[in-house]
Amino acid sequence: MASGELAVGEQLPPAAELAQALSVDRNTVLAAYRQLRDDGVLEFRRGRGARVASAVTEPGPVTEAAQALVTIARRHGLGRQDLVRLIEKLT
C-alpha cells in the first residue's frame, strides 16, 4: 500500500488465501488486517472483505515518531525550519 502497489478501494485477498500463499497461520493474517484497519489503512465491509481505505492517512507509527521529534526539538529550542533542515540533511 505504501509503495502504491495497491490502489484506494482495491480488495485484499481473503485471510485464508493470503495465509496459504505466505505459509502463515490464518490468524496471523487476520491480526495484521485488524491492525491495518485500526491504523485507518484498511476498511472492512460485511460480505465484501477488506479494502484499502479511501482516506489513507499517515502511518500511525511514523506520525507518533514525528510528534515525539517535534516535542523533543521544542524542548531543546529548535523550531520548524531547524527540523526541516535536519530532515533534509538526513535524507
TrEMBL record:
* Record key words, sorted: DNA-binding, Pyridoxal phosphate, Transcription, Transcription regulation
- Record domain HTH gntR-type: where: 1-55
Which Pfam family, just one, is annotated for this protein?
Answer: GntR
CDD domains recorded for this chain?
Answer: WHTH_GntR
The record's listing under InterPro entries reads:
HTH_trans_reg/aminotransferase, Tscrpt_reg_HTH_GntR, WH-like_DNA-bd_sf, WH_DNA-bd_sf
The record, for PROSITE patterns, names:
HTH_GNTR
**Superkingdom to which the source organism belongs:** Bacteria
Q: What is this protein called?
A: GntR family transcriptional regulator
